[in-house]
């Protein structure tokens, strides 16, 4: 028999003042896995986390840890008995305690009874030399590391993290995220991390739980969410997108860039054709002739540069098609910065285009 998931959440619902803030949310997280609750502000991420922690009660649904019920209609295991570690945005360390006692805070007997574990954890985040320091003597990144190992010290079955990196300087963040991830993997705990930043979720998650208005709209590996978004909003959450519209006839829609398949969409229904700026193909104009159509890229449409901005590693080029109807943004390597009005041929990579019925 296979072991149950470390954390399992089934049909969780929570309303405030008659308004469902978390609605029918289900997911599971395995030991050693990082799951990210990702979504815009107010979509219900933190409420979900608080229900799992046990500091709030759902209206309905089940929460199980290692197959044991923590919460359902008849049961409510209090937070301190759920074996859940917490690391929140304001991860404040105790200012009057040295690092050693901060790390040992959740351990029976404090530092004196747990010297080895505390020293081992400090060494793993390169903080051994700060064992006697007080929080005010540490940088933001160092405090973050102490907060992380404080949460991990009691070896929780599950670690809950709410925007844990948002207080950090942007230049520090990537390094600390990577370090944190490495330590979490070594500890083998199951992690549920809340973030509103797609980049953070892509970097940290084995599994992304994309939330919108209280519901999970898509869940899966970062690669799948990015490359097979469930709708236009999901596509747009991960990067800028271009949107073309068209009408369907015979499961196809015709555009200046050729035909696009729209399987299962009724005749006359409008669709949105979505493509990310980095997936446009651009070709120079050669005496009014563009590249021949291909199965891979469809037909080329003539467009002109409206403006181009150099962003460092890449440039952002805004085009308008020659019929004046479609505006498209393309990102290209930063060495390429065409001047306004340059005519160019644009193609849309068929394997990178998403077609959605217009809502
Ligand atoms: N105790 C409460 N009483 C009333 N409304 C609440 C309560 N807690 C949360 N809400 C509401 O529920 C909604 C979701 O809040 P939640 O904090 O879960 O969102 P979030 O996705 O974590 O957003 P953010 O990223 O801004 O923290 C918000 O509209 C919030 O105002």
From TrEMBL:
Keyword Cytoplasm: no
Keywords, in A-Z order: ATP-binding, Cell membrane, Ion transport, Iron, Iron transport, Membrane, Nucleotide-binding, Transport
Gene3D superfamilies: P-loop containing nucleotide triphosphate hydrolases
GO molecular function annotations of the record: ABC-type ferric iron transporter activity; ATP binding; ATP hydrolysis activity
Cellular component terms per the entry's GO annotation: membrane
CDD domains: ABC_Carb_Solutes_like
Annotated ranges, domain ABC transporter: 7-238
Top-rank taxon, per record: Bacteria
GO biological process: quaternary ammonium group transport
Pfam families in the record: ABC_tran (PF00005)
InterPro entries assigned to the protein according to its UniProt record, in alphabetical order: AAA+_ATPase (IPR003593), ABC_SmlMolc_Importer (IPR050093), ABC_transporter-like_ATP-bd (IPR003439), ABC_transporter-like_CS (IPR017871), ABC_transpr_FbpC (IPR015853), Mo/tungstate-bd_C_term_dom (IPR008995), P-loop_NTPase (IPR027417)
UniProt-recorded name of the protein: ABC transporter ATP-binding protein
Organism listed in the record: Paracoccus onubensis
Origin organism lineage: Bacteria, Pseudomonadati, Pseudomonadota, Alphaproteobacteria, Rhodobacterales
């Amino acid at each position: 028999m296979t072991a149950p998931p470390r954390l399992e959440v089934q049909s969780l619902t929570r309303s405030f003042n008659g308004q469902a803030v978390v609605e029918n949310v289900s997911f599971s997280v395995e030991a050693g896995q990082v799951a990210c609750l990702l979504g815009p502000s107010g979509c219900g991420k933190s409420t979900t986390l608080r229900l799992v922690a046990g500091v709030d009660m759902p209206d309905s649904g089940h929460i199980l840890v290692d197959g044991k019920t923590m919460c359902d209609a008849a049961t409510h295991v209090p937070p301190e008995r759920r074996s859940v570690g917490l690391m929140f945005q304001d991860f404040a360390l105790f200012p009057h305690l040295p690092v050693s006692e901060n790390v040992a805070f959740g351990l029976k007997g404090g530092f004196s009874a747990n010297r080895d574990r505390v020293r081992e954890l400090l060494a793993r985040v390169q903080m051994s030399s700060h064992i006697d320091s007080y929080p005010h003597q540490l940088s933001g990144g160092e405090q973050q590391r102490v907060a992380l190992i404080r949460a991990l010290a009691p070896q929780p079955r599950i670690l809950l993290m709410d925007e844990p990196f948002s207080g950090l300087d942007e230049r520090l963040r990537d390094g600390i995220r990577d370090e944190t991830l490495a330590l979490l993997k070594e500890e083998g705990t199951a992690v549920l991390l809340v973030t509103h930043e797609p980049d953070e979720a892509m970097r940290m998650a084995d599994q992304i739980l994309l939330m919108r208005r209280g519901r999970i709209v898509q869940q899966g590996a970062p690669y799948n969410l990015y490359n097979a978004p469930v709708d236009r909003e999901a596509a747009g959450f991960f990067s800028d997108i271009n949107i073309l519209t068209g009408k369907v006839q015979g499961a196809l829609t015709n555009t200046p860039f050729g035909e696009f398949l729209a399987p299962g969409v009724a005749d006359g229904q409008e669709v949105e054709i979505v493509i990310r700026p980095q997936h446009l193909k651009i070709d120079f104009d050669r005496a009014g002739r563009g590249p021949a159509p291909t199965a891979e890229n469809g037909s080329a449409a003539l467009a002109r540069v409206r403006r181009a901005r150099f962003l460092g590693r890449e440039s952002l080029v805004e085009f308008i098609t020659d019929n004046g109807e479609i505006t498209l943004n393309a990102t290209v390597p930063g060495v390429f910065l065409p001047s306004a009005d340059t005519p160019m041929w644009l193609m849309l990579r068929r394997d990178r285009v998403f077609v959605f019925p217009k809502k």
